[in-house]
Write a structure and sequence with these properties.
It is globular and about 90 Å long. The chain folds into 3 domains: about 220 residues, no CATH class; about 210 residues, Alpha-Beta Complex (Spore Coat Polysaccharide Biosynthesis Protein SpsA, Chain A); about 30 residues, no CATH class. With about 600 residues, it is of the alpha/beta class. The longest helix has about 35 residues. About 55% of the residues lie in helices and about 10% in strands. About 40% of the residues are buried. It contains 19 helices and 11 strands. Strands 3-2-1-4-9-6-10 form a 7-stranded mixed sheet, sandwiched between helices.
Length: about 600
């Protein structure tokens, strides 16, 4: 079954990195600056001249939401401001070319460990990943060791490792989950560099040849490569889809629509899994700030950096606790006993690597190294795709993955925020702030989704009037912001990402509430096989938004027809606003019913 599934996708090639263009970057910077300036002008007008003081319960939340969203826009613009790709270098021949002061024994070839953490994934899936790792090539002598890190303690997984001639590592407990699994493997391996993979990560033969050259700079701690999901559904052309329902006339209708809109693929990437926006646009633009963070799979780490940062983190934790004991306890005997007990506790529970026992252990790796006050460790985002992975194939798997991302990031922001770490530079803090702020957007997104519903049912406006003055201020901002985003994202479609971001609000809200209540974010393993069924229960909030907005549009239309709703400008504004919200919700609702086409043998 696994072989049959992959046959459909094996020959698909990854997209090339988007070429860098100086004129396009200058145009983006100009439009982004104009957009922010006009946006500030609009916000100033909103606060000083447009509030409906008869309905502050409605007006204030909306203008606050707009202000918070504008703050997010500033961070987004800073993130995307410019591209500074790290120049690639030739692959090093020996480890001495990757350190500050090479010693005689460092004339040896490089040693690389490739880690495949696994828990309950199909052993045959892991076998495919192992075989691709075994095909890695390098232009110089190199010692590559592949390790299967099996937290499932499965005999069948050990057998696969033996059959493929790779190392098999397990442990007695699963403490720390994936982070603990990585730490356990680091304690038993000795490579100069570590390639982190997921169970379904299938590295390309060129991954080391194209990335180890960055480590000629002895301050480079890790290199992150883009994650690419090679099995994204290609979709069905709109004319063919309508033809199934209406025959030849349907096909002609679809062709007519495409003459106006361009080619439309229905069912293409139904869960908005394509990571191109995140990696090729957002992560790549963080290189200039030395702030591209680790995303786990597809990353290559310098062992020295990982261990050095780990020991420093451990030492700082010990110092803080000892200082607290010294400060708060007066009895010397009790102080000594507490210090000894605290040291035992730390030995048992404190991680000796940056792979913190946390659902976002990869982000913690970045934070530990970026905030090291004694060593200016560098990160590199390598724009070329060097591996392929499986995408989520159902809404349950997608929800598990997104909740993990949201909860882990929000937990870091609340409990170990790097913005308050002394070793991190200001530009790096801005990049982390952009990530944290984006996940808090669920708060104001709820307001943006609710505002047209409230107006359509009540006729109460959050602004003093939907007048010409209102449109003079808002329309230039919306136009410039849209145009700047189109240029700034280099042609990568922003609509699907923006609409899905808006529709994420229930998952992000759940993650936010979970963290606020002090509950730990679980360590779920994202399923690698499709979960069968329809998942309407997962999109009830989005359906509620669609139903209420549609009902509001119908109600307001009836009231207008009866002459009881006379504010035409307000009605038209909220009509377009409501339709935009409905379209944004439709994507995730449709995903709940999506099923892949049956494989044709």
């Amino acid at each position: 079954m696994m072989t049959e599934y992959f046959e459909k996708y094996e020959n698909i090639l990854p997209p090339e990195p988007i070429p860098y263009s100086i004129p396009r970057e200058l145009l983006w910077q100009f439009l982004a600056t104009m957009s922010m300036g006009v946006g500030l002008w609009y916000l100033a007008w909103r606060w000083t001249s447009s509030l409906n003081y008869d309905a502050l319960w409605f007006a204030l939340p909306l203008v606050l939401a707009e202000t918070f969203a504008y703050a997010g826009l500033i961070l987004f613009v800073i993130n995307l401001w410019m591209v500074r790709d790290t120049p690639p270098q030739s692959p090093p021949k020996r480890i001495g070319q990757c350190v500050h002061t090479p010693l005689s024994y460092e004339a040896r070839p490089l040693q690389v460990d490739v880690f495949f953490p696994t828990y309950d994934e199909d052993p045959e899936l892991v076998r495919l990943s192992i075989r691709d790792a075994k095909a890695i090539v390098y232009p110089h002598p190199i010692d590559i060791t592949i390790h299967v890190l099996d937290d499932g303690k499965r005999d069948i997984m050990e057998k696969v490792a033996q059959e493929e001639g790779v190392h098999y590592i397990t442990r007695s407990s699963n403490i720390g989950f994936k982070a603990g699994n990585l730490r356990n493997a680091m304690e038993q391996t000795f490579g100069d560099f570590i390639v982190i993979c997921d169970a379904d990560t299938r590295p390309f033969p060129t991954i080391l040849e194209n990335t180890l050259g960055y480590f000629r700079d002895p301050d480079v701690a890790w290199v992150q490569t883009p994650q690419w999901f090679f099995d994204l559904p290609p979709g069905v052309p709109l004319p063919r889809l309508i033809e199934r329902w209406m025959g030849k006339p349907g096909y002609l209708l679809g062709r007519g629509i495409e003459k106006i809109t361009g080619k439309i693929m229905v069912g293409e990437d139904p869960f908005c899994n394509s990571p191109q926006m995140f990696y090729d646009v957002i992560q790549r633009r963080r290189n200039w700030a030395n702030a591209s963070f680790c995303c786990g799979a597809g990353s290559i780490h310098r062992r020295e950096a990982v261990m050095e940062a780990a020991l420093k983190t451990y030492a700082r934790t010990m110092d803080r606790l000892i200082d607290k004991i010294t400060r708060d306890v007066k009895d010397e005997a009790l102080k000594a006993d507490l210090a000894e007990a605290m040291q035992r506790e730390l030995t048992l529970e404190t991680e000796l690597t940056p792979y913190k026992f946390h659902v976002s252990e990869d982000m913690y790796t970045s934070i530990a190294l970026h905030s090291d006050p004694e060593h200016d460790w560098k990160s590199v985002f390598h724009p070329k795709i060097e591996s392929k992975m499986l995408s989520t194939q159902d809404l349950v798997s997608w929800a598990v993955q997104r909740f993990k991302y949201a909860g882990g990031t929000i937990d870091v922001a609340f409990h170990d925020n790097p913005l308050f770490k002394k070793g991190m530079k200001f530009r790096q803090k801005l990049m982390y702030a952009a990530t944290f702020w984006s996940y808090l957007g669920c708060i104001w997104n709820v307001i943006f989704l609710s505002a047209p519903i409230i107006y359509l049912f009540t006729g109460i406006a959050p602004v003093s009037a939907y007048s010409m003055d209102f449109y003079i201020h808002i329309l230039p901002f919306l136009f410039l912001n849209t145009l700047a985003t189109m240029v700034g994202t280099w042609g990568v479609s922003a609509w699907s990402g923006q609409s899905f971001y808006l529709s994420f609000f229930p998952i992000n809200f759940k993650a936010l509430i979970t963290v606020i209540r002090g509950k730990k974010i679980a360590f779920p393993v994202t399923p690698k096989t499709r979960q069968e069924g329809y998942f309407v229960n997962l999109v009830i909030p989005q359906i509620v938004v669609i139903v209420l907005t549609t009902a509001g549009l119908i109600y307001a239309g009836i009231m207008a027809w009866m002459g009881r709703f006379t504010n035409v400008n307000g009605l038209l504004t909220n009509l377009f606003w409501g339709l935009n919200n409905i379209l944004a919700m439709m994507g995730i609702v449709a995903a709940a019913f999506w099923k892949p086409e049956a494989h044709k043998s």
